[in-house]
Amino acid sequence: MESTITTSEHPLRSVCVYCASSTKIPAIYFEVANKLGRLLGELQLNVVNGAGNIGLMRAVSDATLAAGGTVTGVIPHFMVEQNWYHKGLTQLIEVETMHERKQKMANLSDACIALPGGCGTLEELLEIITWKQLGLYVNPIVILNVNHYYDPLLQLFEQAIQEQFMRPQHQRLWAVAETAKEAVQLIYSEPLWDPTLRKIAAI
């Protein structure tokens, strides 16, 4: 385990990881997904994800399990019927809808890390940020900006603040990491969000 990771800020048991299911993306994303999963596994953390059996989701799960961690996958029944689920996870939770899936993943997690992904990953990330803004989720959210993938989204956030669609304080809803190790460090060091700050959700 990389000894420079400090774990004393607040206790963590489970970390939700949002990421792509695509298999055709550049190798750099798989490299970081593998490293993230290994670090989480070495810390004996439970990874919560969408239970997918391909892409970055599979890479994170396999690396976590190989390093001694556990993985809880949450997946709608229709995806199980399509055989889209990882069969080697520690726990598989079936739900009825995509909405239930996201709610269950949030409920089970003490922090969230978003690796690069497509529409589904972006939806999950933006929804959990919105819930935090409203005081419905208070745990750390880390955007793992591998290969500057999230630069356009971060620029859009900055524009939203400049044009007063969001407050400057909203930048504290998320943290940005460039590496897997930094992302893991941030989930321990970022403070919990004060739910009473939901009053700043309105401009």
Short recap of the structure:
This protein has 203 residues and is of the alpha/beta class. It has helices spanning 27-42, 55-66, 77-81, 98-108, 119-133, 151-162, 180-189, and strands at 14-18, 46-49, 70-76, 91-95, 112-114, 141-144, 175-177. β5 (112-114), α5 (119-133) and β6 form a beta-alpha-beta unit.
Give an overview of the whole structure.
The chain has 203 residues and is of the alpha/beta class. It contains seven helices and seven strands. Helix 1 (27-42) packs parallel to helix 2 (55-66) and helix 1 packs across helix 7 (180-189). The chain is globular. It starts with 13 loop residues before the first strand and ends in a 14-residue tail after the last helix.
Essential attributes:
203 residues, alpha/beta, seven-stranded parallel beta sheet, 7 strands
What's the arrangement of secondary structure elements?
Blueprint: E1 14-18, H1 27-42, E2 46-49, H2 55-66, E3 70-76, H3 77-81, E4 91-95, H4 98-108, E5 112-114, H5 119-133, E6 141-144, H6 151-162, E7 175-177, H7 180-189
Helix pairs in contact: 1-2, 1-7
